[in-house]
Amino acid sequence: MKVLLVFLFTLVCAKHELYEGWKSFFVKPSNVEQLNALRNMVHKFELDFISHPTVHTAAVVVVKPPHQHGFLTILAEEDIEHWIHVEDVKAQLAFDDQLIEAQHTTKRSIGTEGITYENYQPLEIIYEYLETTAQKYNETVTIVTPANSFEGRPIKYLKVSKDNFRSNKPVIFIDACIHAREWITIPAVTYAIHKLVENVTEPDLLENFDWILLPVVNADGYKYSYDVERLWRKTRSTDQHVLGTICPGVDGNRNYNFSWNSAGSGKNPCSDQFAGSKPFSEIETRVVDGILKEHIHKIALYISMHSFGSMILYPWGHDGTISKEESILHDAGIKMADEIFQSSTLQFPKYKVGNSAILLDYTASGASDDYTHSLGVPLTYTFELPGFDLDGSGFILNPKYIKQVSVDTWAGVVTGAREAGKIFTIT
Ligand SMILES: [Zn+2]
Question: PROSITE patterns attached here (predicted)?
Answer without folding.
Answer: CARBOXYPEPT_ZN_1, PEPTIDASE_M14
